[in-house]
Design goal:
This protein is 20% helix and 27% strand. It is of the alpha/beta class.
Length: 122
């Protein structure tokens, strides 16, 4: 087996709220508690382990999805009235980008979440 990313710790103001938010937006299984973390597992087995024991720094997390998943995620974002952007610097508000299709939105702790249908460089 080659090296694979297994999990990453995501600092949060409220680990439960942030984990539930992400799982709902991405259409994933509900988060599960593990030790001091609340974990959201993606389809490829990588988990985002939310931790609210220290103040959050803002990070970037990108999720590669199919066209159908993109449509469902985008619908959930717009149904909630969330602001989204076509670019990581949040200059192109309420637009998606045209590299495949992609957009950015913020989670409750201010992390820059990205959803894209094609890896960069492809």
């Amino acid at each position: 087996m080659g090296v694979q990313l297994n999990h990453t710790i995501v600092p949060a103001q409220d680990k439960q709220a942030s984990a539930v938010f992400l799982a709902e937006i991405l259409g994933l299984d509900p988060p599960k508690a593990f030790g001091p973390f609340v974990c959201v597992e993606t389809a490829n087995g990588v988990s985002l382990d939310y931790d609210d024991r220290s103040g959050p720094a803002h990070h970037h997390y990108a999720f590669l999805v199919s066209e159908a998943e993109f449509d469902a995620i985008f619908a959930r974002v717009t149904e909630r009235g969330l602001t989204y952007w076509a670019d990581p610097g949040h200059q192109q508000e309420n637009r998606i980008n045209d590299h495949g299709r992609g957009f950015y939105f913020e989670d409750p702790s201010g992390h820059n979440m990205e959803v894209l249908t094609r890896p960069y460089g492809s």
